[in-house]
Amino acid sequence: MSHLAYLAILAFCLVCTAPLAVLLGHRVFGDLRRLGLCLLTTFAVFTGWDLYAIHAGHWSYDPSRTTGVLLPGRLPLEEALFFVVVPLCVVLTFEAVNRLSRPRSGRPREPQRR
Amino acid sequence: MSYTALTGLAIAAVVVLDTVVGGRVLRTRACWLSYAIILGFQLLVNGALTGFDIVRYDAAAITGVRVAYQPIEDIGFGFAMTVLTLTTWTRLRQLPSWKQCPNQAVSDKPAIATERPASP
What we know:
- The complex is a heterodimer.
- By secondary structure, chain A is mainly α.
- Chain A has three helices and three strands, in the order H-H-E-E-E-H.
- Helix content of chain A is 65%, strand content 6%.
- In chain A, strand 2 (70-71) and strand 3 form a beta hairpin.
- Chain A is globular and about 50 Å long.
- Chain A starts with a helix and ends in a 14-residue tail after the last helix.
- Chain B has helices at 3-20, 29-51, 72-94; strands at 55-57, 66-67, 70-71.
- In chain B, strands 2-3 form a two-stranded antiparallel sheet.
- In chain B, helix 1 runs parallel beside helix 3 (72-94) and helix 2 (29-51) packs across helix 3 (72-94).
- The longest helix of chain B has 23 residues, at 29-51.
- Strand 1 (59-61) of chain A pairs antiparallel with strand 1 of chain B, so a sheet runs across the interface.
C-alpha cells in the first residue's frame, strides 16, 4: 500500500479542488483548448526542470512509496501527474477566488453592476 | 547549477515573463489571494511528500533551510509554477482568437466580469 503514498497525495489535491470544478465547471472546462495549452506549458517547463534535477541528482524518489512506473528519462509516473494535477488545482483556485470575490456575478450575459 | 540557483532564476524568469509577455497577473489581488491559498496547500502536501521522505534532496544542492519539512527552495519552485500557470491562463484569454475585449487586460471574461480583480 505504501507504494501508493505519492498517488494518494495527488488524489488529495484533486479531492480538495474538485468541488471548485463543480462550482465553476463551465468556466474552467468550457474552453478545453485554453486549459490544455495552459497545463501543457507548465507541464513542459517543470517536467523539463524535474528531469534535469533528477539527472543532476538534486532530488530522488523513494521507490517504496511510489508505484515504480518510470516514464522516459526516469521520470516517475507520479511526477508527470503532479505537473498536470497541480496546475489544474492552481487554475481552479484562481477562478474560484475570481468568482467569489465578486458578488453574485454568476450567470453569463448578466449586465455589469457596479 | 544548484537547486537554490535554479529557483532564484525561475522566480526572476516568471516575474519578467508575467510583466513582459504574460497576463500581468502579479498586479492582481486575485493572483496573490490564490497564491496564499495555494501556499497553504503546498506546505501541507509538499510537507507530506518531504516529511515522509517520498522525495529526498541532495544536501549539496540546497541551502538546508526548511519550512514545514520542505527545503525553502521548494517554496520558490511552487511560486514559479503558480505564476507561470496563472500568467499563461490569463494571457491565453487575451489572445484575439479568444475574442477578448482588448481593453480588459487583467479582468475576467467580459460576459461574466463585473469588477477588475485588482481594484482595491
